[in-house]
Specification:
The complex is a heterodimer of chains A (about 425) and B (about 375).
Chain A: E1 12-16, H1 20-30, E2 35-39, H2 63-74, E3 79-82, E4 85-93, E5 96-103, H3 117-121, E6 125-127, E7 136-138, E8 140-141, E9 153-154, H4 166-170, E10 183-189, E11 191-194, E12 198-200, E13 217-219, H5 220-227, E14 248-255, H6 270-284, E15 289-294, H7 301-313, E16 317-321, E17 326-329, E18 336-342, E19 347-353, E20 355-360, E21 362-364, H8 365-368, E22 376-377, E23 383-384, E24 392-394, H9 404-424
Parallel strand pairs in A: 1-2, 1-11, 2-3, 11-24, 13-20, 14-15, 14-20, 15-16
Antiparallel strand pairs in A: 4-5, 5-10, 6-7, 8-9, 12-21, 17-18, 18-19, 22-23
Helix pairs in contact in A: 1-2, 1-9, 5-6, 6-7
Chain B: H1 11-22, H2 33-37, H3 49-57, H4 60-64, H5 68-71, H6 77-81, H7 88-103, H8 107-113, H9 119-137, H10 153-156, H11 159-194, H12 205-221, H13 223-227, H14 232-260, H15 273-298, H16 306-330, H17 334-353, H18 362-376
Helix pairs in contact in B: 1-7, 3-7, 7-8, 9-17, 11-18, 12-18, 14-15, 15-16, 16-17
Classes of the chains: A alpha/beta (about 425), B mainly alpha (about 375).
Chain lengths: ~425, ~375
Amino acid sequence: MTEDKTAPANGSILVVGGGISGLTTALEAAEVGYEVFLVEKNPYLGGRVAQLNQYFPKLCPPSCGLEINFRRIKDNPKITVLTQGEVEKIEGTPGSYDVTVALSPRLVNANCTACNDCVEACPVERDNEYNFNMDKTKAIYRPFEMAFPMRYAIDAAACKGSECGECAKVCKYDAIDLDMAAQTQNLKVGAVVWATGWEPYDAAKIDNLGFGQYPNVITNMMMERLAAPNGPTKGKITRPSDDKEPASVAFVQCAGSRDENYLPYCSYICCMASLKQATYIREQYPDAKVYIFYIDVRAPGQRYEKFYQKIKEDENVILIKGKVAEVSEDTATGNITVVAENAVTGEKVSQAVEMAVLATGMQPTAANAKLPADLTYNEDGFIINDFEKGGMFAAGCANKPSDVVTSNQNATGMALKAIQTLVRK
Amino acid sequence: MTDKYLIEPDINFVKEIIGLGGDTLKKCFQCATCSVVCPISPDTKPFPRKEMIAASWGLKDRLVGNLDIWLCHHCGDCTTKCPRGAKPGEVLGAVRSYAITEYAAPKAIGKAVNNPKMLPLLMGIPVVIFLVLGLITGLLDFSPPLGEHGISHSMFFSTWLVDMIFVPLAGWVVIVFAMGLKRFINDIHENAVLEGKTDKQELDYVGLIKALFRVIPTILKQDKFSECSENKDRDLAHWMVFLSFIGLFIVTNVFFVALYGLQLHGPYSQLNPVKWLANISGVALVVGGILMIKNRLSKTDQTSVYKDWYLLGLVLGLGLTGMLTEMTRLAGMAGVTYAMYFVHLVFVFNLFAFLPFSKLAHLVYRTVAMAYNEWSGRK
């Protein structure tokens, strides 16, 4: 660091999105001395990574990495975190932007100690989006065990408000404010990094794979929640229809991906995710059979290739080259039959399994909700970085489908791009 | 799969398939969605995924003598569900068109049928034949007297002249098909054995003929079309055209017998049941032809090339000129009805003479392929 560092007038950076990419950009910029505003629309940070059970290929839980990041944020006075915030308007030019952020009321203030008394008292339930609606929480809830900020939140859509007020009655810390109002905050920043991430592609749109029709057809992200110790089944993988331990599971690769009728591109991570999820099943059920139906297995790079080779050695993991194009259900047993042509043998395969997992891809959040800024997108909704224009950059999956490692590298690069915008001014 | 297979790509073959409407074939990435969504593909060695890779690799031998290209009824379900827009249904249509040209000798006629520039020549051939033969024999009379029942087309264009031309023509069609079929049956059998579609090593013609009788109800009811989901609209149209051709075939044969056997000359009474069949068939042909054209125009993901329009044009032209010939005769418009009849015969000649070379040849190849598949015991 230089000795006579003078802070520029608009020396701050706005990071939109508090997932792994946003966290990384915010921390990298803040840790070299820049002021950062981190805006996240959920009441917690961590994004999609917070929903994962394990990372590939190391098979370690993301919680430890997230915890380190949360700790770094907590210790860094340069970062201001705005949860339940959405950027409403951005005006200005590189080096000088006026930003309006709309903040939804959390209805729980900073006094909250996460004692859980309110949850006991709350009479209302809501679908738990964090677990893809596979379970419910009360209207007042803790997003997840290690949520940051560690404060409860109230789902305003579910909560009956002050006419009920049971939670406020039992709260010993005066942490509940059911009349908390929505706010707007104006920020002046010099650069913006969009780390708005991705949504799992809506599997119900894929009309021949049975999702939404047959309960035992789930998505890969649902599988992450089923396998996660803090998930709806406490980490025990059971099938939705009858909580049975599945003796056989089929993975349907490229479900709605690389398909002009749905997402035309490859999401990069789904092959590795399914190989990883095969290990979840094999670990819990030593006799279970796993069938992976694929067009081609994309395990790029040395580490991923090695992981793929290792999974292939397991004789209970059967890889079949052929895309599943038909799915049916045996109504009596709830079992699922997937149909594909094995392109190696040229025979049609009808494989009955107890559960099927659709390896769905990533759709950029901006594809379904355009951002209030002058950005260019590709035809699929990913933000194209215009480095000549500068000032605003996309990081992580807002820019392209990528794994966590690539997202972090990319996010670090975008922190540098944002800093350069400030310095060049 | 054989242990070693030396791939000998035929680049020209790939180019020809592309030119015949299979221009999307290179987009295929072998996901095999098509083989699963196809409602009529068998479980043993299903199509059309393997045909798509053979087409893209230029493996002509794997395609031309492959019965699966004929089992395909061009439903279009594969094309709709294809994730890459590779349109397997269209590619197989192009391969069929290529195969027709391969099996029908002389090949030059097949090439001409697929070439729009040759259309005036193809239409001109019957005109010249009719005029030359008619004038030499004196069987074509441009100012004919009325017959005993008013206008009679045979006074203008003698039935002798018609049969002098069309009977040998029928013989020619039979010979061209017979020669093509001999190779075709051997090829599809060889291919089926090679690709493991059948366990039967030796061809058995008696068995094949028995199998043919077993598939006739399926063909008459056009059952395979009803299984299609994407191109359902075509089901009715194709069935109307198909049945009207059968109807007209019966009518022609009955009147042939009536004329030469019973010495009964036309035109026949409108009350005659055979005449009813003729009229119903004629109307069905026109309506079916129009429906087929309408269907093709409304299907934007379906590739329509010259071979398709040539056949549809002939079908509709045949039906329209036939009905107009009859109507103008009944209206007493002598000159018009003779002209109409002449044009009608030009259409009949085209459809007939070039039957083994045009897309219409599918009626023979598909029938044989279905019979073979039935005989092969494939599941």
